[in-house]
Write a structure and sequence with these properties.
21 helices, Serine Threonine Protein Phosphatase 5, Tetratricopeptide repeat, alpha/beta, DNA Cyclobutane Dipyrimidine Photolyase, subunit A, domain 3, single chain, five-stranded parallel β-sheet, 517 residues, 3 domains, Rossmann fold
Length: 517
């Protein structure tokens, strides 16, 4: 940008940090003085339950941003302006009061956010205020990576090849704030109040607001129970998790699928709210790959595999964002229109199935433990998202959109693009999805990825005394084994809600009917 402004207003949204911040860096280069603000948007907050963990995460992260701005600027009266209202009116009112010439923010790709931003732009235009959006939340956005025919990719593998090739020559630049000390403006006296509390905006702080319970106990990994310490919040929480992950990234490829093992980075919620930059993560992954490859030449071992696989996961994130941006119908419909014709279970049976799934009462231990982990902590291991999602759709025959909405309500790291992409993948309705005939066997998945039942025992203590074989399928255990473990099927743990073989046959028929149209 070459346009220069006297006063700029940076609207933080999914970028709750002060380092490597695209909108802030751009504003500081373009403006003589800069204000920073965050809007607690009633359009987004009002529908949420009053104890939503994510709101607690946001407020805690905002406190750190506010303190960081005051520290970096050297001005105690500077800092973050926090509003609570509706975007078009609130942003325009603040811009008018500050006499802002331009509002800067990171571009969003969700249909609802695009509509909101269009309304904000219109109200600002009426004031003669420019609305400037920049890329921040992804590495490559929208139509930056296209096929040779000039169309968006709908298959991940060729997209990944192009993404990696572009990354090799166009590593995303770090956005470093410029002259923050002299350019960050003091807040007007009526905006110098602290970040509001949960109660101030109509929410309630309870024990369920803690971000605990990520993983089950292992010999070197005690169960995480301390409030806000499992995932942390703000920039400091993100970098603490990142530092921990970088010490074990070399094993990521081998450990990431086992929910009882400390394998993932656990950075999902931090990427969602931008307390760490995607560019920072990509750069660190590339550094690890480079260092690993140099060491491999000396030792002949595949040391960089973990970092390579993690980088591919970051590319999957970009892939789903460009799918949402280029094919916005996926937000409410199947990517493949024909699959909107699938006849899902309806009525009382579907409701009973869905309720059992939501509450961890399907009778399949790994699925139930996964759902209880989600309800307890707001987190679910990625392998379990696939297993539990597939079970809802392909064992219970429930519309994938019901599961997508449930995850959207409960996941700390809910992101429309990734959540929608994941659900369309397991339901075989999306781009580059698993084949419709691939149906996860919940018992085999359990035996393979939780072989000792450690994860199951963490969330289903009533099954804890079962042996390592019986715990995956209690209904198949002997009467003696159940009695010794004090497990009474139908009493303290349910019988399987469906039979796997029967459910699989029904699913194949359900999808076959659509594919024949």
């Amino acid at each position: 940008m070459t346009t220069h402004y006297k006063t700029g207003l940076v609207w933080l949204r999914r970028d709750l940090r002060t380092d490597d911040h695209a909108a802030l860096s751009t504003a500081l280069q373009c403006c003589e003085r800069v204000h920073c603000m965050f809007l607690l948007d009633k359009l987004l907050l009002d529908p949420l339950p009053r104890t939503d963990r994510r709101v607690a995460f946001i407020l805690s992260s905002l406190m750190e941003v506010d303190q960081s701005l005051r520290t970096l600027s050297g001005k105690s009266s500077a800092g973050l302006i926090v509003l609570h209202g509706h975007a078009p009116q609130a942003i325009a009112s603040l811009a008018r009061e500050l006499q802002a010439d331009a509002v800067f923010c990171a571009r969003d790709y969700e249909p609802q956010a695009i509509a909101r931003d269009a309304a904000v732009s219109q109200t600002l235009q009426a004031l003669g205020c420019s609305f400037q959006q920049v890329k921040d939340h992804v590495v490559f956005e929208q139509r930056e990576i296209l096929t040779q025919s000039g169309t968006p990719y709908t298959v991940f593998t060729p997209y990944l090849r192009n993404w990696m090739a572009r990354l090799a020559t166009e590593q995303p630049p770090l956005h470093t704030p410029v002259d923050l000390q002299s350019k960050l403006a003091e807040r007007p006296p009526n905006y110098r109040h602290p970040v509001p509390s949960l109660e101030d905006i109509g929410f309630t702080s309870t024990l369920s607001d803690t971000l605990s319970g990520i993983v089950s106990a292992t010999e070197n990994n005690p169960t995480l129970q301390a409030p806000m310490q499992a995932l942390g919040s703000g920039m400091s929480g993100a970098h603490k998790l990142l530092d921990d992950f970088l010490h074990r990234i070399d094993q990521y490829h081998a450990a990431r699928d086992f929910p009882a093992v400390r394998g993932p980075s656990y950075l999902g919620v931090h990427l969602r709210f931008g307390t760490v930059s995607i560019r920072t993560l990509v750069r660190l992954a590339l550094q690890k790959i480079g260092a690993g490859e140099r060491e491999e030449e000396e030792k002949g071992a595949d040391i960089s595999a973990g970092a390579r696989i993690w980088l591919q996961e970051l590319a999957w994130r970009d892939f789903y964002f460009q799918i949402l941006a280029n094919f916005p119908h996926v937000a409410t419909s199947a990517f493949k229109p024909a699959y909107d014709g699938i006849v899902w279970e309806e009525g009382a049976l579907a409701d009973r199935y869905f309720d059992a799934w939501c509450n961890g009462r399907t009778g399949y231990p790994l699925v139930d433990a996964a759902m209880l982990q989600l309800r307890e902590s707001g987190y679910m291991h990625n392998r379990l998202r696939m297993v539990s999602g597939s079970f809802l759709v392909k064992h219970l025959g429930v519309d994938w959109r019901r599961g997508e909405q449930f995850f959207a309500l409960h996941l700390n790291d809910f992101d429309l693009a990734s959540n929608n992409g994941g659900w369309q993948w397991v339901s075989s309705t999306g781009c580059d999805a698993q084949p419709y005939f691939r149906i996860f066997h919940p018992v085999r998945q359990s035996e393979k990825f939780d072989p000792q039942g450690k994860f199951i025992r963490r969330y289903l203590p009533q099954l804890a005394a079962l042996d390592n074989k019986s715990i995956h399928a209690p209904w198949a255990a002997s009467a003696d084994a159940l009695a010794r473990a004090n497990v009474v099927l139908g009493h303290n743990y349910p019988q399987p809600i469906v039979d796997h073989a029967t459910a699989r046959e029904q699913t194949l028929n359900r999808y076959a009917a659509v594919r024949q149209l």
